[in-house]
Design a protein that fits this description.
- The chain has 251 residues and is mainly α.
- It has eight helices and no strands.
- Helix 1 runs antiparallel to helix 4, helix 1 (3-27) runs antiparallel to helix 6 (168-193) and helix 4 (109-131) crosses helix 7.
- It is globular.
């Protein structure tokens, strides 16, 4: 298979996990504590992938200074964009309870939530595309981490959307659109960055990693702790070790 096509397909598959999670939440009433536990596990998986795949690779190819600058830049851009969307109604977009506002309660919140979901998914997708540069296969650890974390993201957020009386068309339109956008972001990431210097790829990877970590701290972990409380840390640790095992198995 052509590598650029593989990049798009892997991004679509990873983004499709959001649709899977949304479908589960729409048709099955999942207890909030179960959702929180899955969210904590997914957060641990992503943290592990950041540490042992993305940041480690960025440091080895771009150096610690470039990695640090890129990482902080990614976190800063994400936090700034997230703060803007928060004021427009997207603050609780990953919450599974009644925290999300309806369109009647805050006009424009539906669009803000959709944009927030897109903001959360793009860095992950770019990383998938970049991971194919110079190789023939996608990083199994990164792919598994993104897929595993996307299921609870879609599940929790869709449950909250349903509580806010969003329509099925809106819910699946958002997540279907994000899945397609994830595939395009992965494809574009590969096409745009293929052939550039390893140092620049390292910086881009660090930027994406910083944005992903900021997303975890701002959205996924608060939702997990809100419901799972004292078990959050333990479940997150199990997720971390699971991704570490995948990483070690692939070496």
């Amino acid at each position: 298979m052509l590598t650029w096509l593989a990049a798009g397909l892997w991004g679509l598959i990873a983004g499709g996990a959001l649709v899977v999670g949304a479908a589960i939440a729409w048709w099955i009433r999942v207890p909030s504590k179960i959702i929180a536990g899955i969210m904590a596990f997914g957060a641990g998986v992503l943290i592990s992938a950041l540490a042992f795949e993305l940041v480690d690779e960025a440091v080895r190819t771009g150096g610690p200074i470039a990695t640090t600058i890129g990482f902080l830049a990614g976190a800063l851009v994400y936090v700034a964009a997230n703060a803007l969307l928060d004021r427009r109604g997207a603050r609780h977009r990953k919450r599974s309870g009644h925290q999300q506002p309806s369109e009647d309660e805050q006009s424009g919140s539906g669009a803000a939530i959709a944009l927030g979901a897109l903001l959360d998914g793009i860095p992950e997708s770019v990383v998938l595309g970049v991971s194919l540069i110079g190789g023939t296969t996608v990083s199994p650890t990164v792919l598994a981490a993104i897929f595993i974390s996307n299921v609870p993201e879609g599940l929790s957020s869709a449950a909250g959307m349903k509580q806010a009386h969003r329509s099925a068309g809106y819910v699946f339109g958002v997540w279907g659109g994000i899945a397609v956008a994830s595939g395009l972001a992965s494809l574009i990431g590969y096409l745009v960055l293929d052939g550039v210097s390893p140092a620049l790829i390292a910086v881009i990877t660090a930027v994406a990693a910083g944005a992903i970590l900021a997303m975890l701290a701002d959205t996924m972990i608060p939702e997990a702790f809100d419901r799972a409380h004292a078990l959050t840390g333990l479940i997150t640790a199990v997720g971390f070790l699971t991704a570490l095992a995948v990483h070690l198995a692939g070496e």
